[in-house]
TrEMBL record:
InterPro entries: DUF1214 (IPR010621), DUF1214_C_sf (IPR037049), DUF1254 (IPR010679), DUF1254_sf (IPR037050). This is DUF1254 domain-containing protein. Residues 63-192 form the DUF1254 domain. Gene3D superfamilies: Domain of unknown function DUF1214, C-terminal domain, Domain of unknown function DUF1254.
Amino acid sequence: MSSTLCQCRVSQEVAAGTVKLQDLRLTNSAAPAIAQAAWNFIWGYPLPIMGFTMASSLKHGPVNEFQYASTLSNASSTGVVTPNHDTLYSQVWLDLSEGPQILSVPPIEDRYWLVPFLDEYTNFVTSIGSRLNSPPGEYLIVGPGDQDTAGFEDSRIIRLPTSIAWVIARMLVLNDADTETAYHLTLNYTLSPLLASRPASGARDLISSQIAANVSDAPGAVLNSGPIAFITALTAKPLPYFESVANISTAVPPDGGVGIEDTTFVPEAASLSRADNADILTPAAALGNACILASASGTGSAGNTTSSGWKYNLRTAIFNDDYLYRATTARGGLGALPPQEAIYFTATTDADGEPLDGSVPHTITFAENPPAGAFWSLSIYNSSNNVFFDNPINRYNIGDRTPGLVYAPDGSLEIYISVNQPTAAAQASNWLPALAGRYYLVLRLYDPEPSVLAREYEPPAVEPESSTVAATRS
């Protein structure tokens, strides 16, 4: 692995409270070791976040058993970063060291649905769903090295490269009245063991112990505060961070054949986690963290940027050896889907290049509906924790199923983003409430049309309103 750390621009302070490179006091002799340790920091970043997400989930149910959400994600949903408000989530943490599992899928008609499979390193492995015309019935899920397929056809065998894996299924909700119908459909996702359960490998318990050890000061408060607060606290302690990465990656080793092209890169986290390496680990953690935050804040180089200021990536969930992008996604969009399934356009700044902030009202005008075969939505999130926030009308997004939207005679749709509700009826109907501080927007296109995948589509810019115009609307 090259000692060149990353291409993100971290020569200046990348965000409030983060490190300046000149403060690291790098020396020529220490630079290679620090660069390698910083790569290890970035490489391992998703593991504690996945561990935290699993620990939070397992408070509500065991492994190899679905947990079903009966309502759409809202301001109280803090377990997963940047959730959507379009689909009901049904999730299950798999421990395949206990043996293969049989997944049962019901007949689902006239709505979008998806069951994706992610490995422990957040790599998308495969999926079944409506876009793929996947048939209902039973599918066999097997872990690494398990050859017992019990006569299942190859098309119904799902092979996962890590024994610990995550399924976070989506079921589209058509409208508020449809929520219960969608929920009862999800209840028909079930898992059962192929054979009598084998003794677990211990990896699950090790991961849970790593998380518990780092939330010991106030475990309930930390687990309830969300993954961003957890990873921020953990990365401020380089030794515990590197030890967690070393222990988790040893218990659940990566598979070079899925999502990782650079199979020659083996992190040295185990040796670097020794206390006598503190002089290396402290600046390395600061450097790695600065690079991730730069990428997450939009000052880095990950992905593509449209002329209208939206960022997106056509390699989401298929990271190969782009560990920086993998880390950035784990922080801001854990569980994201590959581009053939969904494209995520993210805006953190407006058309003037200013950070999105509720102190300034903004508008977005779509000349026509975005090109999505399944559905589209525009969601708003609190930048401080990457989740939804309370608002007076409990609206977290606007999309193709939002009732009461007012379109212009030419078919365009203007969305108003502000803290205060506009007074004009048409504008109030199209109001997406903002919070007083920093926020970001995500435009989701599920089953994107070919023009999107060909980079021919650009969302309209997020336009700031002048103080005069804003005053007439509030």
